[in-house]
Design goal:
Number of strands: 8
Number of domains: 3
Shape: globular
Distance between the termini: 45 Å
Structural class: alpha+beta
CATH class of the largest domain: Mainly Alpha
Oligomer: single chain
CATH superfamily of the largest domain: Butyryl-CoA Dehydrogenase, subunit A, domain 3
CATH architecture of the largest domain: Up-down Bundle
Largest sheet: 4 strands, mixed
Length: 383
């Protein structure tokens, strides 16, 4: 597929840029901003053929919107999990009733979602989940267990949860994909996790018999692994190109800082900057190739390996070019209260997690080795 932009895409891009310039004023809270996006028709673009989105948009136009959003400096999205993960999963695996119930509120920015995958004993090894989904006499499910590193759970209205519905099962079998409402006092507890950066977008979530309706099982009971893996493929689609626009902005700030501090006089620093720039361009073309249908079965894992290590190296360079000033903490630092870091410090600290979350580097390499290269499967449980 030739992934080229046409004149209609340029018009669409101009419309998106103008709308963002008029509405992204930074004064709205994140939930209000989601509703503003929904009212403007900018959530779920491309779903129109399914009958649940706001407007028709081709794949290239979706890329244009994602890129313009990243360039605009608009607020960080709190609805992207529902839009980019849950919605494509329901379109692919959900019933007509599930699509009709859940897609319109996502498109309107009215309902926010979080993802209940990782657990304390099943982070990178997702097949080891122990959260239970027990059938009730009414045919519904009671969910009991703990999830961790759950992004934006403190803001979410719903959570899609991977749970073990067959207590006799092991690994990938006997798992079910459930949609669970978060407003269940006494049955769901959310505890924010304070990070090195001073922020708390990740959370622990404790389920104590939380109710999930039978009609909110996505796919077949016991077939949750297939649905969950399909969702992870969506996680690295069009949004990766928007991510790369953000990376380019960060790289630009590092270059400007290097010029201000005189660090760019070092030929090694200049070489590292050029290397990072070239790798970022390669990642963009790789992402476009993947969206065009030429990426192959291991493309999501390859992309994750590329950007995670790249972003960490950028964070390291960001603090190096600042010199000693990068080691000075905020004046209002507190071990218990939130605090503010400068951009370079935040980039350096947050990027340490890049090679872990969303599937660790080790897991991505195993996927490529076993599922793409056909190498012998790794022996489990052997030290």
């Amino acid at each position: 597929m030739d992934f080229g932009f046409c004149a209609q895409d340029d018009d669409f891009r101009a419309e998106a840029r103008a709308w963002l310039a008029a509405h992204a004023d930074g004064e709205q809270d994140r939930r209000t901003w989601e509703r503003t996006l929904g009212a403007g028709g900018w959530i779920g673009i491309g779903w129109a053929e399914e009958g649940y989105g706001n407007r028709t948009a081709t794949l290239t136009q979706q890329v244009a919107w994602a890129e313009e959003y990243a360039r605009s400096g608009a607020p960080a999205r709190s609805g992207h999990i529902g839009e980019n993960l849950l919605a494509p999963t329901l379109i692919a695996h959900g019933t007509e009733g599930q699509k009709a119930r859940f897609l319109p509120p996502v498109a309107a920015g009215e309902e926010l979602w979080c993802q209940g995958y990782s657990e304390p004993g099943a982070g990178s090894d997702l097949a080891g989940v122990r959260t239970r989904a027990e059938r009730t006499a009414d045919g519904d499910y009671r969910v009991t267990g703990q999830k961790i590193w759950t992004s934006l759970a403190h803001e979410a209205d719903w959570c899609f949860v991977l749970a073990r519905s067959d207590p006799e099962s092991a690994r990938h079998r006997g798992l079910t994909f459930l949609l669970v409402p978060m407003d269940q006092p006494g049955r769901i507890e959310v505890r924010p996790i304070r990070q090195l950066t001073g922020t708390s977008e990740f959370n622990e979530v404790f389920f104590d018999g939380a109710l999930a309706r039978a009609e909110h099982v996505v796919g077949a009971v016991g077939d949750g692994w297939r649905v969950a893996m399909g969702l992870l493929g969506f996680e690295r689609g069009v949004s990766t190109l928007a991510q790369q626009i953000g990376f380019a902005e960060e790289l630009g700030r590092v270059v400007r800082t290097a010029a201000e501090t005189g660090a760019d006089a070092d030929p090694v620093v200049r070489e590292r900057i050029v290397q990072l720039w070239a790798e970022l361009r390669a990642m963009r073309w790789n992402a476009l190739r993947t969206l065009g249908g030429s990426g192959g079965p291991g493309a999501p894992s390859v992309a994750k390996l590329l950007w995670a290590g790249w972003h960490q190296r950028l964070g390291e360079l960001a603090v190096e070019v600042r010199g000693a000033a990068a080691g000075v903490g905020p004046a209002d630092w507190s071990p218990v209260a939130p605090y503010e870091l400068d951009e370079a410090q935040h980039l350096f600290l947050f990027s340490r997690a890049d090679t872990i979350y969303g599937g660790s580097d080790q897991i991505q390499r195993t996927i490529i080795a076993e599922r793409v290269l056909g190498l012998p499967r790794e022996r489990k449980g052997v030290v």
